[in-house]
Amino acid sequence: MESLEANKTWHLTHLPPGCKVLGNKWVLKTKRKPDSAIERFRARLVVKGYRQRENIDFFDTYSPVSRITSIRVMIALAALNNLVVHQMDVKTAFLNGDLDEEIYMEQPEEFVIPEHASKVCKLDKSLYGLKQAPKQWHEKFDTLVLSHGFKVNESDKCIYCKSENNTCTIICLYVDDMLIFGTNIHVVNEAKAMLKESFEVKDLGEAKFMLGIQITRTANGYSLDQSSYIEKILKKYNYFDCKPACTPYDASVKLFKNTGDSVRQSEYASIIGSLRYAADYTRPDIAYVVGFLGRFNSCPSREHWNAIERVMRYLKRTANLGIHYQRFPAVLEGYSDADWNTLSDDSKATSGYVFNIAGGAVSWKSKKQTILAQSTMESEMIALATASEEASWLRGLLSEIPLWERPVPPVLIHCDSTAAIAKVENRFYNGKKRQIRRKHSTVRELLTIGAVRVDHIRSEQNLADPLTKGLPREKVHNTAKGMGLMPTEPRTTSDGNPTQ
C-alpha cells in the first residue's frame, strides 16, 4: 500500500453515472531463492481485469518480451567479449505505466477509508490485473531508454544497444527483469543510474539467476544451467532416488497412440510441461523426446510412462549439465536434420536444427513436420527451410549488435543430405507438391541474398541428429558436448577468481 500511495496510482472520487467499477483482491506469495529458501513475503493488489470491456476499458494489449534465444545469444556474446553482466529488477513495474482510459476500482479490502466509504478509486496509473498493464509498462520503459541514446533491435524489440567511445551497453528486458551487458563496469553503472532516476529498482549485482536459469561466470566465459530446477522436479514427482540412465530415450522402443484407458493422464501432462521448460531453455539433449512424448498427453499408456520415467532417470544422471559459452569461436553456425523413418502415427517426419555461438547452443528446435514428405530428400528440404529462416533471424539480430563483426557473413548450415543440398543449389525444382516448392523457394532466396550457405556433413558429426531421433549412449554424449553441454563449474567473481 505504501508503494501504491507513493506512486499516486489512484485518487478517490464518486462513481460517475453509467460507469462500472472493477473489483480487486490481494494476492499473497512466498518468494524463494534458487535453493528453495524463503527470500521474502510479497503482497500484490490485483484488479479483476476479466470484467473489463474491450474498446471501452481497454484497446491494444500486446506487449513484447525478449525471446529466450535472444538472451542466450547475449550471454554467448558476453563470453566472447568478456562483458560484465549485471541484473536488475523493477519493483512493482506495472504501476509505472500511464493510463489513457478512464477506469474505476473499489477501494482495497482492509484499506477502506471510513469517511470516504462511498467513494471509488479512479486509476491514474496502471495496476496489476489490467489487460493493458503490460503494454503501458513496456511503452514507459521503451520511451525512457530510447531518450537516453539507446537503439532498439528490430529483430527483438526488448533488446536495446548503445555504443559510444569504444564502449557498448546492452539492456535485455523480460517484463520487469533485465540483464545489463557492458564492456566495463562504468557503462553498466551509468545504465543503472539512468534507470534508478525513473523507476524504483532492485540492484541484484552480477547476474546469477533469471527465469529459473542459473548464470555462472566461469574461467573461460559463462554457463547456463537449471540444475536446481531439475532437482526440484525430480523430487516433486518422486524420481530423485531413481536409478540413473545413460540416454533419454530407448530407440528400440516403438510408441504409438493408446487405444485403451489412459494412465494417470493429469500427472503425465504435468511432467511433460515441467520437462518442456527445461528442454526449451537449457537442455537441447532432451528436446526430441519431450516433444515426442508430448504427443500422447491426452491418453498416455503404461509404455508412455516407461518412456517418461527413462527421461527422469537420464536427468538424474545429468542434472548438473549446463550450456557453456567460451571466448572462441566467434562464429554462428547451424546444423539441420530430419528423420523420415518416423515413429509418428500419421507418417510425418521430424525436423531438427541447432545453432552454436562461442561453442554453445543458442537456438534449437525439434518439431514434427506439418507437411507429409514423400522421400528423405523432401523431409530434409523442409527441415533445411526451417533452419534457414531461423538463421536469417539470428543474422538480423546480430547485425544490430555493435560487438559483432561487420559485414555479417552468411550463416553456414550443415546438412547430411547430399540430395537436399543439390536441390537447393539448383534454381529450378519441378516437384509435384506446392508446399515443397515453397520450401525450396525459401532456401533459394536466402542463398541468393547471401544470408545463408549450405554444406555437407557426415551424419555422425551432425549435432542436430539427437533432435530428430533416439541415439545410442556414445552419440548422445558426443552431440551434447558439441552443443556445449558440460558439467557446471564453480562460480567466479568479475576478476576471474572463484567464489567461496
From TrEMBL:
<dbReference type="InterPro" id="IPR043502">
    <property type="entry name" value="DNA/RNA_pol_sf"/>
</dbReference>
<protein>
    <recommendedName>
        <fullName>Reverse transcriptase Ty1/copia-type domain-containing protein</fullName>
    </recommendedName>
</protein>
<dbReference type="Pfam" id="PF07727">
    <property type="entry name" value="RVT_2"/>
</dbReference>
<feature type="domain" description="Reverse transcriptase Ty1/copia-type">
    <location>
        <begin position="7"/>
        <end position="249"/>
    </location>
</feature>
<feature type="region of interest" description="Disordered">
    <location>
        <begin position="479"/>
        <end position="500"/>
    </location>
</feature>
<dbReference type="InterPro" id="IPR013103">
    <property type="entry name" value="RVT_2"/>
</dbReference>
<feature type="compositionally biased region" description="Polar residues">
    <location>
        <begin position="490"/>
        <end position="500"/>
    </location>
</feature>
